Amino acid sequence: TNPTAAKGLVKNVSFSAIDQIADGKKPGDDAVVDKPDSTNPTAGKVVIHKRLQDIVAKEDKESLNTFVFSDNEFTKPQGDIFTEGQYFLGVSMLVYMYSHLRETCRMGHTRCEMEDIDVHSLQSTYKRGTPKRYLKGAKSAGSIIRVVIDELDTADGGDEDNDIVGEENKEYEKSITEQFRIWIEESRIDQMDDETKEMIAEMKRKVARHRWRRAISAVRLSYRIAGKPPRWEEPVCAPGCENQNRFVDMNEMVSQAMRKQPKYFREGSVMHNLIESGIEVVWFSDMSQNDVVYGICVCREERKVTVVFRGTVNAHNWKMNLKFDTNEYRNPVKQNYPDREDELSLHSGFAMYLLRKRKDSGINKLQEIFDKIDEIGREMAPDGNYKLCITGHSLGGALATLTGFYAAARSRFAHLDTIYVWTFAAPRVGTVAFIKAWQHLEKTGRIRHARFSATRDIVPLVPFCNFERDDLQFYKHVGVRIQLHPVGRLTKWRLKRHLDVTYPLHFTWMAEIQRAFMNNILANLTTLGGITNNHKLTEYQKRLHFAITYRKALGSGDLFSDRRRNRIKTLDEYYHIRANITGASIAQEILEQSKVTAENAVKQRLQYARLFTALLMVTWGFLLATLSANTFGTPKPSLHMFVGPMSHIAVGVWHICPLVTFLFIV
């Protein structure tokens, strides 16, 4: 099951017998080959030989064609759903930190100046004009985190100015920076309990012993096939030490010592991953805290643009969250699909944030975001070949869902690959008509959505309905749901069985009852403090980190031989498993849509032809009646004045109208 285990041990071995096996021939009498296990189709494939490596790679490529992957050479292979979720959760944390840092800086409660931390924003636009290059003033995640740490250290040290301000101001500043301190401290400590760490260590020891046995068996097999002992590569030694101890490489020892230097953040933590990811903030919109607060980040190495929405932080945000009624908006999806409706019912509060037009500029917030995405994306990738991702937590998750939906439906971003939406603790935003339009975009490969929710968090379970007597409608969730459970023995048992990943594929009454039971708010009620803690980003980060660490340990331990569960799958693979959406189904859906579009175009042309033919017939009849009156009778003066001077033109039109009408009818 691990054919590359001996790749670093066997070098420069003659594999003539393996060549004969790859060509379908019987090996020579001098070669001794063990019969491969019939239950393991990869047991006879020794991929340390280059020719067989190419064969296996070809087979893997054919098997992966059933999923949707980008052909962009700058795009890295998609990570598993937990790793990607941890990355976008860290980006959401970064935007929270940067937003609060800018707010406290504007109030004068920080030692740094606004010019030192500001990126291109509405404030800088008013001062310096519209920027020509957004990437020039970008701020990296490491620089933002460094400023936050310095401010926290300064707050801990205290000074005379803060002592004069008073206790009330101190408490206000502490409430703002408390969340920063929790995120940073939790990124420096290990969040695993001793029992879990011991179990993971025991799994790793078992896997190490198993792999050593397989590696030794591979060396013995290669020796039996080749008929002579393998030639090992020369060990690497430091320059000038060729005649000394060849087992010591001073350069390698120094490199290992540097790599083992203690780091400020724990390896694999959210802050560490943010600093190492190369993410940069290039645009930030926070002119008013009562408006949509969002940032646009880029990763130049992957040509990825990420729009991040901040969640609920003030009373105005809560006021908009509690608007449970719906408003009707025009359906942006122009293609025909089953049960299509011309208007969609959306949450009035969330939709008002994005779709309400400004009186000064005449555009809404959604149009502003799309303009910034296009400008920044084309600056980073002049050919327009960049990747678009949208993420957010709580209120930000709802806004990210709507933004991703409209971006996937607009022809402005039709040149992009699949748009990915990653949300955390996001409430519902639309009704049945909305989920039908969303799933049509999923079937055509335009959008993918990973929606993370936590047990005992009631925000993803609301709102239920619009509470309108005349038009009662129920809200529906969209995308693939990944449920995160609290750390404990029950969660370990669940992770060992399978991941809690679901998708609303069917809408029968049985499926609706099952979803209603799973999303029952009464079963998720807890104390007021528990509701608040279960909704925090820190709790999502803790559960996500535990799930990914424990599941990977199971994949290399107890589930090592289980091909279905020994690794965490990607979001595209879960769409294939849960939603039955594959590359073939997407191609079929696009083909059907093209046929429907062609048929509609033909019908439209026929309607225009019929209308033009009818106009020609009316014109011909009018001219015929006019000329007949001019020849056999005395027309009215007005009609005679019209026909007299233009009689030669009228006669020509009268003769040619039947011919043109006949051609249009044909």
How much strand content do the residues show? 5-15%
Query: Largest sheet, if any?
Result: 10 strands, mixed
Low-confidence stretches: 1-75, 160-166, 243-248, 634-643
> Would you count the extended β strands for me?
12
Radius of gyration: 33 Å
Gap between N and C termini, in Å? Answer: 68 Å
Q: Work out the helicity level.
A: 40-55%
Helix segment tally: 24
Q: Decide which structural class fits the backbone.
A: alpha/beta
Overall average residue pLDDT = 77
Shape category: globular
Keywords:
666 residues; alpha/beta; two-stranded antiparallel ribbon
In short:
The chain has helices at 16-22, 50-64, 81-106, 114-117, 122-128, 141-157, 160-165, 167-186, 194-226, 250-259, 270-277, 315-321, 348-355, 365-380, 395-409, 432-443, 489-497, 509-518, 528-535, 537-555, 571-578, 583-632, 637-643, 647-665; strands at residues 120-121, 139-140, 280-285, 294-299, 304-309, 326-330, 343-347, 387-393, 419-424, 447-454, 480-484, 501-502.
Give a verbal description of the structure.
This protein is α/β, with parallel strands linked by helices and 666 residues long. It contains 24 helices and 12 strands. It has helices at 16-22, 50-64, 81-106, 114-117, 122-128, 141-157, 160-165, 167-186, 194-226, 250-259, 270-277, 315-321, 348-355, 365-380, 395-409, 432-443, 489-497, 509-518, 528-535, 537-555, 571-578, 583-632, 637-643, 647-665, and strands at 120-121, 139-140, 280-285, 294-299, 304-309, 326-330, 343-347, 387-393, 419-424, 447-454, 480-484, 501-502. Strands 1, 2, 3, 4, 5, 8, 9, 10, 11 and 12 form a 10-stranded mixed beta sheet that branches. Strand 8, helix 15 and strand 9 form a beta-alpha-beta unit. Helix 3 (81-106) packs antiparallel against helix 20 (537-555). The longest helix has 50 residues, at 583-632. It is globular, with a radius of gyration of 33 Å. It starts with 15 loop residues before the first helix and ends with a helix. Mean pLDDT is 77; it is low at 1-75, 160-166, 243-248 and 634-643.
